[in-house]
Amino acid sequence: MSRVAGQRNSEEVIVNGAIRALSRHGVRRLSMSDICEESGVSRGTLYRYFKSKEEVLDAVNSRIEDTMRAAYDDAVAARPDPAERVRVVLEVAISFPERFPHMRQMIQLEPGVALAFMTRELPTIAKFASEYLKPALAESPPVVQGILTERQITEIFMRLVMSSFLIPTPGSAKLAARLADLWDSLTTSDESAAAPRQRRMRAAR
Questions:
Q1: What is the per-residue pLDDT across 139-149, written as a single tens digit (0 to 9) for each?
Q2: CATH superfamily to which 1-51 belongs
Q3: pTM of the full predicted structure?
Q4: 166: alpha, beta or left, given left = phi > 0 and alpha = psi -120 to 50?
């Protein structure tokens, strides 16, 4: 194994350990010792790659962003039809807690910290998601008529999705389908689209 590959592997082990430690201790109580314990590395090794807890958390955030981008890319590649784009993006967004189970545990441990994080990251999340939603939003009636911008619509979607993380209900898993159906009903006037929408709504109940 090359030196670069070895370094990358060590950093990955540490980030994986940090994610597990976060689910146990939350952000406020997380210590470098906790990260060492979960990662199975010595303090010397940990500090060789990360000088502080904040650097580790930045690496965790980068991992989350890379994983979500890959999830969006894969979902869009599998279902490239722009007419399906809102549904595809919302399905990926709503699956966030399943892709990162530690985040659900962190929300339960420290809801205030989770809320602060989501509030701080919302602009970035909205900008990120808008890249994938653009094919569906650019020519949509709200944008064409100047009622809302693509970014504003994306932020509304992401706010609703993120609210389901903080206030989970039995219907949260179906939120993506319901939002997509609502979007279709608001932006599609062609009567030929009514039957497919009705079938999707019945399936989402």
A1: 999 999 999 99
A2: Homeodomain-like (1.10.10.60)
A3: 0.80
A4: alpha
